[in-house]
Amino acid sequence: MLAIEEMGRSGIPASIKMAQACLESAYGQSELSKKSNNHFGIKCKSNWRGQKVYYDDDHKNECFRKYKSVEDSYIDHSNFLMANSRYAFLFTLSPDDYKGWAKGLKQAGYATARHYDQSLIQIIEEHKLYRLDHKETFSPMAVYEQKQINNPGISNRVTINPYNSHKTLTLNSLDAVVAREGDSYEIIAQELGINAWELYRFNDRPEGYRPRPDEVIYIQSKKNRAAKTHSTHMVNEGETMHFISQLYGIKLKPLLRRNRMSPGQEPNQGDIIFLRKRKPAN
């Protein structure tokens, strides 16, 4: 979930980010959030170089930031707080001190509402959003933006969907999960309580790789060879060595060595790939 990713990058509690998004956007129902993807009510300010829209707020025809996506709004919210000196004291607070953050945002003048801090705290406690500060994304939570507003412009990356957490499956006698739209190895790692670097290593992927929807992701180390029931594989059109390694739950490097291939070398359609024994020399 992006709120948790941004917490790791910025130190802003995920609970605070989600509560502000819910409050400032009226759970995504506000015109500003629907038409401009602005979920935090951030105004243009003198340093804003992006797109702009104008709405009546504290004053008539005020300038607000417009974003290409909801994700951009969440990221800019972090950047906005980090770059503004009047919020600097907040970053000395513990990342799970949502009450301190709520009171600090009111003190710093983020919004003019008299009970802004109390409203944030109420949203967090009513919906147990404080669980996000401990990276608990798969426990049941009653409310999240996508469920509340059914807004197709809001992706799963920035909402809490407790009924759609990753379920563990067994493939090649290994534990795995299936990626969803908007997933990253970081999101999955946070949910399962493991390190993201382990997922990259388990799946022979470079750091920063983003999985595609429905892609199988192993959450434990693959094996050095396939099961006894699979000794060879005939390559079909478009198949890569990485695809074959995932298909049979085999580490990519041993698979390449077994078939006398170099990293980056790919098979041709119709080739026989040896999954257990070393390929005979020509």
Structure in words:
It is a single chain. The protein folds into three domains: 2-152, Orthogonal Bundle (Lysozyme), CATH 1.10.530; 166-218, Roll (Membrane-bound Lytic Murein Transglycosylase D, Chain A), CATH 3.10.350; 232-274, Roll (Membrane-bound Lytic Murein Transglycosylase D, Chain A), CATH 3.10.350.10. It is built from eleven helices and seven strands. It has helices at residues 2-10, 14-24, 31-36, 70-83, 98-108, 116-126, 145-149, 185-192, 196-202, 241-248, 252-258; strands at residues 51-55, 62-66, 169-171, 174-178, 216-218, 232-234, 272-274. A three-stranded antiparallel sheet has the order 3-4-5, with no helix packed on it. Strands 1-2 form a two-stranded antiparallel sheet. Strands 6-7 form a two-stranded antiparallel sheet. A hairpin with a 6-residue loop joins β1 and β2. α1 (2-10) crosses α2. The relative contact order is 0.10.
Concise structural overview:
With 282 residues, the chain is of the alpha+beta class. It has helices at residues 2-10, 14-24, 31-36, 70-83, 98-108, 116-126, 145-149, 185-192, 196-202, 241-248, 252-258, and strands spanning 51-55, 62-66, 169-171, 174-178, 216-218, 232-234, 272-274. The longest helix has 14 residues, at 70-83.
Number of strands: 7
H/E element order: HHHEEHHHHEEHHEEHHE
CATH T-level fold name of the largest domain: Lysozyme
Mean pLDDT: 83
* Sheet of most strands: 3 strands, antiparallel
Shape designation? elongated
CATH architecture of the largest domain: Orthogonal Bundle
The first-level CATH class of the largest domain is given as Mainly Alpha
| Terminal residue distance | 50 Å
What count of helical segments does DSSP give?
11
Low-pLDDT segments, ≥5 res: 136-164
Helix content: 25-40%
Which structural category fits the helices and strands? alpha+beta
Q: How much strand content do the residues show?
A: 5-15%
Number of domains: 3
Biggest sheet strand order reads 3-4-5
